[in-house]
Design a protein that fits this description.
Length: 228
């Protein structure tokens, strides 16, 4: 069990978390992570002195790195993008793109590293997001979409690396341009894009915004058992 504390600049005053009970990591969770070949566990404890929603078994949400066992619970059915959600929405983005496996409802869901690239010519102040059927990319809710990145050297290409369930199940998505504080412009001339995260690392170049022209697909597969 543990808690967080803050220390004053002078080093002689401490403030403990008072609004939350003792935080803890169940031993059974550590055991499941070890059995799945996970090397590192990250505890998502949220904000200081604020209760965090607990997963099954009373544990905090957990993030697990570098799991190599693909025999994990498979994702459920894919939700197609509802047309009513493809309108303007308050801007926002999912936090972080850590490559993880996650403790969900008492079971481990190993996640793949998926890197996507798309060419988008934007106007000053516009940003590019990815939004789709999986919860990690917003579940078709633009306010929960994941922001992509670019640079002076990379532009007009935008990239993002996502953690998606390593399940072999199809993930649907589209790219979205955030044109203003509360306005998103979807790809509206093409059907939903799709990918299948069935390897530990997946690299996709989707060509240009609002066009179907995937150019590069690279998958990094796990080495066969016993391979040097």
């Amino acid at each position: 069990v543990y808690k967080y504390a803050t220390r004053s600049a002078g080093g002689d005053q401490w403030r403990w978390e008072e609004a939350v009970g003792d935080r803890r990591i169940p031993k059974e969770t550590v055991g499941r992570a070890s059995g799945a070949g996970v090397d590192e566990i990250i505890i998502e404890d949220g904000a200081f002195n604020e209760p965090v929603a607990e997963a099954a078994g009373g544990a905090p949400p957990l993030t697990l790195r570098d799991a190599s066992d693909p025999s994990t619970p498979r994702a459920g059915s894919i939700a197609r993008s509802p047309s009513t959600s493809r309108d303007s929405s308050t801007a926002g983005s999912a936090s972080g793109t850590t490559l993880v496996a996650r403790e969900v409802a008492g079971g481990l869901t190993i996640q793949a590293s998926v890197t996507l690239r798309v060419t988008v010519n934007t106007n000053y102040g516009e940003e590019v997001y990815i939004c789709g059927s999986d919860a990690s990319i917003g579940a078709w809710v633009p306010s929960r979409a994941v922001k992509m990145g670019t640079s002076a050297e990379l532009y007009p290409d935008w990239t993002v690396t996502l953690p998606l369930p390593l399940s072999g199940s199809k993930v649907l998505y589209k790219y979205v341009i955030k044109a203003a504080a509360d306005q998103f412009n979807w790809e509206n001339r093409i059907p939903d894009r799709e990918l299948v995260p069935d390897s530990r690392e997946l690299f996709l170049n989707d060509g240009r915004f609002n066009q179907i022209q995937r150019q590069v697909t690279f998958q990094k597969l796990d080495a066969p058992v016993g391979a040097a």
